[in-house]
């Protein structure tokens, strides 16, 4: 059943295999260009398939295959049931094979347009891109799109695999024309190497070995090329960066900073800086479980101890003292949007850069890039698969590098704060200003002294609910009550503010976000002035109400949900708006064709369907009294 | 992004350490699932390295189906004690009370109750928000698409469509209360890498991986070891002593042995280079039905 193998030859093999390098590449291109087939072919021809896998493949090929009686290699890699049934690849699959020189990790990425985000994901973890083109079809929209994304993610080495050349009679002129077409548009992408190879994944021509069918082709086979390609290791030559992952404190005598060297090298005794605080020290030791090291380079996971007791924690970047990263709270970036819910400028999201997670928002979409024509287009929001150049502001200053210089400290992901989904991927172009140069102007008279004069605790009473829910009516009653008691108040009403401050805004999702952002900022200034501010706005999205809450200090934001069912509000229809919305005369009307997201944990809920406005106002007043807002 | 100068094993090691540190830093209550197999052995070794000189800031947990090889249980306790890790052991007591076993109830129901349900029960009981597992992408087709951070709903369900894209090494660790993440730090390792690393780092493994004379019976072409008297024998069936070893370890009635003379690590690797059957072929549970692993995962199987 098994042949005995002399231990000595296994040991030899191991010694050789242990010294191997690792190359990660992705295959991409339009649907049906044969990506999965190519990977299946590589696994088959490098003898990585076992007998039981081949048996499964043979039976699957008969059942679902598209290649007649031959093995359908695509079935090897299309793993999820939905994919096998539909014959398409909807997720990134990772595959592994090895040659004498290298171990390979292949990301097999989807071709369909709606899965471009998966393709970008595969590219972010690859050194080389193999872009497939169907020889019968030539360059397609997806070919251009994928090439663009590959360049955007900083890949420098590309293989143009012209597949199914067998179906074009191994024609050199077909191949040459496709290569010429490709070079024409790819010139601006700045690829370091671009190697075109005519292949047939199905029959194996020029995949592992040079094919007799293409005597006119003088270059290497695909595998030979991947085996010998010298991948430029830029990371080692850049300045030293180490994002701190975890502070290592086993006892009081040891305090180390654990992390993976993102770029450059560091030696014991070298001067380093904690980028955010600017505190400097020298490296005392580089600790690993296998002993201390004199130096560590990009990619190594280590623990640094420093000569001085300086403060650093998770999210900080330890950097070369003589080549520091930018520290900024505003920067320009390329952004790939990856979610069905559009990006809305002004809406707060989380971003994770290195080991740091901060609140950020897009302050401006400078332009969107049409990935087919590469033209710059104006945009107010970004939809799934859009690529854009944007300006971003973060809540706190962060250490960053341009992605083109140090990808590890210039790449970030965007996370939706409500759903926790990863919704975007970004690459820093450059910091917009040094945040440390712009200080908040400190003023002598404070919020406390202003509100003290008024004998009240300043706050925002934020009324949210559907149009016609009764927000303004109740807010008006509350303000009258406070005013009669000599309290200093102001009521910001949605309709009134839209006549002035916000008259340039409409009712799209993007404009609604900006509408709320401005009102929240105005309310914050008024709270700073010591006032009790009543805000009566539909404010349909949780994210923006959360943003308003976070602009204020704890206890200053009181969310009041005027919970009137749609049917009741529509029945009242004081302003006749529902009737017009139903008739299609008003677009984007909350509750009709635009969503309302009810608060999850409001301070006060008013079931206004059941409660009279006066009683509701009384409840809010009692809340203020009980919680010490009225002195 | 690569560092060609590091060998592939050192790159894999550094990647796994990075993942473990991320989890330790971002989650409130992580746990490392310890299956006692070779992949778990590597995972444990990497955890000890990742946090050195500290001990890993999370416990180990073993889901004991009560049908593990006896040698596995002895090895488990010895390893935890030797490394100084905290070890939790959990068994689905309800399943034990009902006498659920792989013979009377079939491997599918048995696995569901004693592994999947037991795991969910244990995660809920301790309120773990992240659980490390030793699964590799090269094991099986639906694993090839698994994320490093695999998101699970509050019911421990896995929905392939709601998995988050993973770009660069920026893992999104955000979850809501009750939700959890399964983390696979060995995602990019292959079986050969695992053996090579065990050899290079001199990592202890359960002796069942090495060939020895063991009592086995042959069923449907698979060699099943008679590890204790609970294995029902057919009339006239007599266990034979054969020189066998295991390529993968699980519950003994569901784990097939292969005939082999490989009694050193070098010999195992040598044998692997000639091997013509894939690792999971020895796991009887994968053969139950087409796309079986994907189905199990949707239900909460690791």
UniProtKB/TrEMBL annotation, chain A:
Task: Supply the name of the protein.
Answer: Multifunctional fusion protein
Q: Which HAMAP family match?
A: Adenylyl_sulf_kinase, Sulf_adenylyltr_sub1
**EC nos:** 2.7.7.4, 2.7.1.25
Keywords of this entry: ATP-binding, GTP-binding, Kinase, Multifunctional enzyme, Nodulation, Nucleotide-binding, Nucleotidyltransferase, Phosphoprotein, Transferase
Q: Where is the Tr-type G domain?
A: 20-234
Q: Name one Pfam family in it.
A: GTP_EFTU
PROSITE patterns, sorted:
G_TR_1, G_TR_2
Family in the record: In the C-terminal section; belongs to the APS kinase family. Belongs to the APS kinase family.
Q: In which pathway does it act?
A: Sulfur metabolism; hydrogen sulfide biosynthesis; sulfite from sulfate: step 1/3; Sulfur metabolism; hydrogen sulfide biosynthesis; sulfite from sulfate: step 2/3
Q: Name one GO biological process term.
A: hydrogen sulfide biosynthetic process
For this protein, the record's InterPro entries field holds: APS (IPR002891), APS_kinase_dom (IPR059117), CysN_GTP-bd (IPR041757), CysN_II (IPR044138), CysN_NoDQ_III (IPR044139), G_TR_CS (IPR031157), GTP-eEF1A_C (IPR054696), P-loop_NTPase (IPR027417)
Q: Which PANTHER family match?
A: TRANSLATION FACTOR
- Organism of derivation: Ancylobacter rudongensis
What is catalysed by this protein? sulfate + ATP + H(+) = adenosine 5'-phosphosulfate + diphosphate; adenosine 5'-phosphosulfate + ATP = 3'-phosphoadenylyl sulfate + ADP + H(+)
Role noted for this protein: APS kinase catalyzes the synthesis of activated sulfate. Catalyzes the synthesis of activated sulfate.
Residues bound to ATP are 465-472
TrEMBL record, chain B:
Q: Which InterPro entries match?
A: PAPS_reduct_dom (IPR002500), Rossmann-like_a/b/a_fold (IPR014729), SO4_adenylTrfase_ssu (IPR011784), Sulfate_adenylyltrnsfr_sub2 (IPR050128)
Key words, A-Z: ATP-binding, Nucleotide-binding, Nucleotidyltransferase, Transferase
Involved pathway(s): Sulfur metabolism; hydrogen sulfide biosynthesis; sulfite from sulfate: step 1/3
| Residues making up the signal peptide according to the UniProt record | none
Cross-referenced Gene3D superfamilies, in alphabetical order? HUPs
UniProt cross-references to HAMAP family, sorted A to Z: Sulf_adenylyltr_sub2
Name the job this protein performs. Answer: With CysN forms the ATP sulfurylase (ATPS) that catalyzes the adenylation of sulfate producing adenosine 5'-phosphosulfate (APS) and diphosphate, the first enzymatic step in sulfur assimilation pathway. APS synthesis involves the formation of a high-energy phosphoric-sulfuric acid anhydride bond driven by GTP hydrolysis by CysN coupled to ATP hydrolysis by CysD.
- Protein name per Swiss-Prot or TrEMBL: Sulfate adenylyltransferase subunit 2
Organism whose genome encodes this protein: Ancylobacter rudongensis
Name of the gene this protein is made from: cysD
